[in-house]
Amino acid sequence: MKSTAAILFLLITQTFNVMATEKQTYRVVHAEKEFEIRFYPSSILATIHSEARSYRELSVPGFRQLAGYIFGGNESGTKISMTSPVHMDINDSLSSMSFVMPSSYSMEKLPAPDNTRVELEKTADEYVAVLRFGGFASDKRIQKFSAELRKLLEERNIPHEDRFRYLGYNPPYQPFGRRNEIIVSVEWSE
Q: Most exposed residue of 13, 54, 98, 143, measured as fewest CB within 10 angstroms of its CB?
């Protein structure tokens, strides 16, 4: 009985920690039942590129390299807070995984990574279509929801890129209340 209570306490504590995590800023500019269009202002990402061609191949090694950077693997040994979501761009040529840097940092204030595979980059402002799904992510589910979002955009004649990306908001140990999203850049004006 004590172990069950301890596990429940750990899950509740971790859920509150996740809820307190800084999330990347965006503004919803159009909402429908199945998806929404968001505006994401420029942000700073720590990114690794990989020849991985699947969520499974990219997720663990990519996460380890990026976590190394924010847990002190940088020129000053600075620990940088984890944010959400984790960005993944999985494709047949060069995939990537990115952590959004906390909004309190500028490019000039971020320490250089010890790992030369970790690159710091500033994104451009972007409009994206977003489709949310729960549960655990997998290659099959990412493909399924990407196809669903593509179909919704085509039915509404919303011009979009062909590069669908995955956003993950939860740590792997969080079993409930998981948030996953498929996003794609769209042409949009307000």
A: 13
Q: In what helix (H) or strand (E) does residue 50 lie, and over which residues does it extend? A: strand 44-50
Distance CA 96, CA 90 (A): 7
Asked if the bond preceding 85 is cis, omega within 30° of 0, the reply is yes
CATH number of the domain at 23-185, please? 3.20.80.10
Q: Which residues contact 161 (CB under 8 A, 6 or more apart)?
A: 184, 185, 186
Q: Tens of pLDDT along 111-169?
A: 999 999 999 999 999 999 999 999 999 999 999 999 999 999 999 999 999 999 999 99
Residue listed under structure tokens 């991985």: 52
* CA 100 and chain centroid, separation: 8
Q: What is the largest CA-CA distance in the chain?
A: 57
Domain-wise residue ranges, the chain: 23-185
Residue 111 DSSP symbol = P
Contact 182, 166 (CB under 8 A): yes
